[in-house]
Each structure stands twice: as structure tokens, then as C-alpha cells.
Design brief:
single chain; about 280 residues; mainly alpha; MetI-like fold; globular
Length: about 280
């Protein structure tokens, strides 16, 4: 006899509705992307084929899809690496209180509450006033860092607040330099958190629209290209593009999760070997 309380079923139903609300649009786009050559943008479906996926790899009259994809991927990697490096350096620096640290911290996270379009407008104006070229790899890069760095900083601050300093003390007792302590002790311990920061950095950059809108210059990133397609494309090719980009996003997340799993297994193996040696 099922003795689970009624609240369990209420919560389960609420969670199911949440999942449906979250993934329903993605599933709908995925289904509609497999329509036949005469398919439209709405149900009912007209045929079943891979026609629109093949159409993506042909010469497009609607824009530079794959160029935009390459720019978004390159920009995402640039933002990811910068976010990880700066976040780790800031996390190490903020372990000790210094003059102006509080002001610097709040200044760093203030961009999270400022409307993204204002950030984009401000960065674009600054580049124009300085006579610098507005480009996705310069002004776009800077605008996106105002979005990713605060998340990286908050994660690293939480990690280092719980970090056991006795590991560093033990390394220094063994004659390790400050750099060796960071490289061989601190970084391996916080490696899973670094993967999390990297994932945040890449994914937030890859799909960022508002902060790139006025800072990308003459070349669109993928979100801007997709937005442009919504105004002039009337075929399911845009759904096929959405399906492929969604699969790419899941592959990226899977790769990062796999990296976390590999690090966890490696730690467990090293711990087991150390225990056997003792």
C-alpha cells in the first residue's frame, strides 16, 4: 500500500509541470525541425525528413550562420579562460582583507543588477568616445565579462571561504614555494569548482544577447544572428538551427560534467593508493 503523503504527489506534479514548462519549447522546436520540404513554422507537421538540417549546410541567403557560430564559440572560450583566471586570482587576493576590498567587491557584482542593455550601450559609447573600433572580440568581450566575472567571483569566494589552509601550511613545511603550493596543492583541490566557473563563463557568453547587441560591431554572434533570422526566415530551417545549437549546448555541459567525474575518480584513486601505502 502506498503510504506516501499527499504533499509528495503535489510536489511531484508541480515538478513535472516545471520540467514541461522548461523543456516543452525546446522539445517543440526539435519536433518541428524534422518536417518535410513543405513544412511550416507551426503544427500540424507536414512530412518527416532531415531536409532543413541539410539546408543549414548549404549556402544561406539569410545570413552567416556558421561564421556567427564560430564567433560565439571563440568569444565563449575567450570569456571562459579570462573568467577562470581572474576569478582564481581574485579569490586568492580576497582571502586577506585589504584597503578598499569591500568597495571593490560590490563594484564587481553591481553589474549583475544593472540592465544588460545599459551595459551594452555604455561599453559601446566608451569605445566610440575613445576612437576604438566596436568589435565582438574587444568591446563585445569586455561587455560579456561584466556578466560572467561576478558569477566566477562569487563561486571562488565561496570556495576559498571553506578552503582548509592546513594543506598549504603542510606544503610550505615541506619546502614548497608559494607558486608550487598554488600549482600542486590549491589548484588540484579546487579543480571541480574551476570547471564550474569555466562552464558558467562559456555558457553565459555563448548565449548572451543583450550585452552583445550594441558591442558586436559589424559581425553578429550566434544569438544576434538567430534574432535576425526570426524577422526574415519563414521556414523550419531556424528550428533546425535551434535544435543543433541546443545539442551543442548539451554536449558542452556533458563534457564539463565528464571532466568533473574524471577528476573525482582520479582523486578517489589517489586517496586509495595513499591509504594502501599507509
Amino acid at each position: 500500500m502506498d503510504r506516501r503523503p499527499r504533499s509528495f504527489y503535489v510536489l511531484a506534479a508541480f515538478f513535472a509541470l516545471f520540467v514541461l514548462f522548461l523543456y516543452g519549447p525546446i522539445l517543440t522546436i526539435g519536433i518541428l525541425s524534422f518536417q518535410g520540404p513543405e513544412g511550416g513554422l507551426t503544427f500540424p507537421m507536414n512530412g518527416l525528413s532531415l531536409h532543413w538540417f541539410r539546408d543549414l549546410f548549404q549556402q544561406q541567403a539569410v545570413g552567416d550562420i556558421w561564421g556567427a557560430f564560430g564567433r560565439s564559440t571563440t568569444l565563449g572560450l575567450m570569456v571562459m579562460i579570462t573568467t577562470v583566471v581572474v576569478s582564481v586570482m581574485a579569490g586568492l587576493a580576497f582571502r586577506k582583507r585589504f584597503y578598499g576590498s569591500g568597495l571593490l567587491f560590490y563594484a564587481a557584482i553591481t553589474s549583475l543588477v544593472i540592465p544588460s542593455i545599459l551595459i551594452s550601450l555604455g561599453v559601446g559609447l566608451i569605445f566610440n568616445q575613445l576612437g576604438l573600433k566596436v568589435h565582438w572580440a574587444s568591446s563585445g568581450f569586455g561587455a560579456q565579462l561584466t556578466w560572467t566575472l561576478p558569477f566566477g567571483l562569487l563561486i571562488m569566494f565561496a570556495v576559498f571561504n571553506r578552503f582548509d589552509k592546513s594543506y598549504e601550511e603542510a606544503a610550505r613545511d615541506q619546502g614548497a614555494s608559494a607558486w608550487q603550493t598554488i600549482r600542486y596543492v590549491v589548484l588540484p583541490i579546487i579543480a571541480p569548482s574551476l570547471i564550474g566557473v569555466a562552464l558558467f563563463g562559456f555558457t553565459l557568453s555563448y548565449d548572451e544577447f543583450a550585452r552583445t547587441l550594441l558591442t558586436a560591431g559589424s559581425y553578429n554572434t550566434l544569438p544576434l544572428e538567430i534574432f535576425g533570422m526570426t524577422t526574415n526566415v519563414t521556414t523550419p530551417v531556424i528550428y533546425a538551427l535551434g535544435t543543433l545549437t541546443t545539442l551543442f549546448s548539451f554536449l558542452v555541459i556533458g563534457a564539463f560534467l565528464l571532466g568533473t567525474w574524471v577528476i573525482g575518480r582520479r582523486r578517489a584513486r589517489l586517496g586509495s593508493d595513499a591509504g594502501s601505502a599507509l
